Structure prediction request, 68 residues.
Amino acid sequence: MPKMKTHSGMKKRVTRTGSGKLVHKQAGTTHLNEHKPTKRMRRLQGVAVLTGGDARKVKKLLAKHKGK
Prediction:
């Protein structure tokens, strides 16, 4: 069985916190923002923690990656 490689697309999109949680950038903030309310854009600033089944899938993809 060959070694499992880290998914390079995923390692660019997700970082690990000190406690091992996965953190990602919020979606919907990069373009077409003119018509979006300021309240929504403020809410989408910053990062969010990945939870549940999504976190399990991403951890598999990042099996070899240690994080930043």
